[in-house]
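new request in #modeling-help
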Amino acid sequence: DTGVSQNPRHKITKRGQNVTFRCDPISEHNRLYWYRQTLGQGPEFLTYFQNEAQLEKSRLLSDRFSAERPKGSFSTLEIQRTEQGDSAMYLCASSLDRASGGSTDTQYFGPGTRLTVL
Amino acid sequence: GDSVTQMEGPVTLSEEAFLTINCTYTATGYPSLFWYVQYPGEGLQLLLKATKADDKGSNKGFEATYRKETTSFHLEKGSVQVSDSAVYFCALSDPISGNTPLVFGKGTRLSVIA
């Protein structure tokens, strides 16, 4: 079990540029979540997948944000036309749902990608 | 909607002191409750959890009891160490009402001094 990994760990970009982050979940986990954490706050839910299906999106996820999980394994989160307000830590988590034998609701987090928009 | 409220920090304690971090929640269903910890420079780690009323979660000397009557899940430790210095997050997940993603509190920063 290698845990959840995220790349890159840090990203600095200029306003208006597009950025893409990658998350590799724990291999047998079928659920994958994206959260955003700003300084001094708890993580806020953005979206989640069950296998390749995107099941829920938060209203925080504006039209500039898109997430994919094309083969039900790794996921990407893209932000288009970045704004300074997008600066945050982007966290990925994974879990195995109960129907598949997992422990209900236990999500395991990656180290996060810190985005700074200048 | 569902929400979590936890005591604001920072909390500063001397080594071996008793720790309590208060957490209360609002949920429409019967949530599972969690405490996550974030050590400096690291990601969130699950510390403990409880999935039904009166359950006690425990790990590394930390404990929290799911109190449905007071909608609380306070974190306690009898004797803190310098290595416990971190940010602690209370969270809930309410799958019965359809809310599988975690809802977090704002976090409480704990500093333990020798």
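bot summary: The interface with chain A takes residues 4, 32, 34, 36, 42-46, 49, 51, 89, 91, 93, 95, 100-107 of chain B (CB under 8 Å).
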